[in-house]
Amino acid sequence: MDSAIDLSDSSKALSLPHIRYQLIRLEDTxxxxxxxxxxxxxxxxxYKPGAIQMEGASETTTSDGKLLSFxxxxxxxxxxxxSQIRRYQSPDExxxxxxxxxxxxxxxxxxxxxLWPNDxxxxxxxxxxxxxxxxxxxxxxxxxPERPEAQENYGSxxxxxxxxxxSLSRRIHFGKFVAESKFLAAPEKFVPLIKSADLAGIDAAIxxxxxxxxxxxxxxxxxxxxxxxxxxxxxxxxxxxVDAVVNMYRDHVIPLTKIVEVDxxxxxxxxxxxx
Length: 275
Ligand SMILES: O=C(O)C(=O)C[C@]1(C(=O)O)C=C[C@@H](O)C=C1
Description:
This protein is an all-alpha fold. It has a single domain (10-266), classed as Chorismate mutase, AroQ class superfamily, eukaryotic (Chorismate Mutase, subunit A, Orthogonal Bundle), CATH 1.10.590. It has ten helices and no strands. It has helices spanning 10-13, 16-38, 70-84, 123-139, 154-173, 175-185, 187-195, 199-206, 209-226, 242-266. The chain is globular and about 60 Å long. The protein binds prephenic acid. Residues 20, 23, 178, 206-208, 211-212, 215, 254, 257-258, 261 line the site of prephenic acid (PRE). Prephenic acid (PRE) binds at residues 20, 23, 178, 206-208, 211-212, 215, 254, 257-258, 261. Keywords: Amino-acid biosynthesis, Aromatic amino acid biosynthesis, Cytoplasm, Isomerase, Phenylalanine biosynthesis, Tyrosine biosynthesis. It catalyses: chorismate = prephenate.
């Protein structure tokens, strides 16, 4: 959607330096959204299905009858709306609730097929990790007691969650473009690995440990800068914990990006001469 990369220009969309530039830019987006979210208490009740009475709300379950939490309901309702303005027609956007998507009210866009047809979507796994691991670490300020639930912030917290999850999802699913770019650069390396379903081998082939170390180092600096007090006032509370942000990338964002890359490549030979 709000892409600085021109997805209609495949030479750019598949250039690894261009994709990495986009990933670097998305670090800022993710970090700022996490800072916004961290100003509110964790409010765990909003993630528990059925815990909050939603007076007059339509569709408080998924289409197969699963009860939604308040946060899930907010995400699902937003996705209903955003699908109508073509968000999910863009190859870099993936819904959390595909069951809720509506027909677009605008004419279909014709994106040229830059990616190979695939149905890779790790959003369920992302949301589970976000709620259970990422968010608890980011909402707790180091050295300060956990803040009590604030019922008046339920809406703000869920709104911030949507922004966090959408930016994280976009970053992680950019792995498809990374994978396509790497595949096209060396099909002779990837085809045998894919054919023998050598997941560890594919993972090793897409891994660049130096780039990963750089990502974490840069992110730590950004979290230090954007989450701290510009006047270097040591007494001023931090807006977000630096370690929580770095750990989020090290333990979740980069690993999930790599899962997307591997899963995408496992679908890459379908309908090709290599199949
Ligand atoms: O930049 C790449 O080559 C990627 O595949 C992306 C990424 C990342 O998530 O930042 C993932 C795997 C690589 O080991 C390095 C970095």
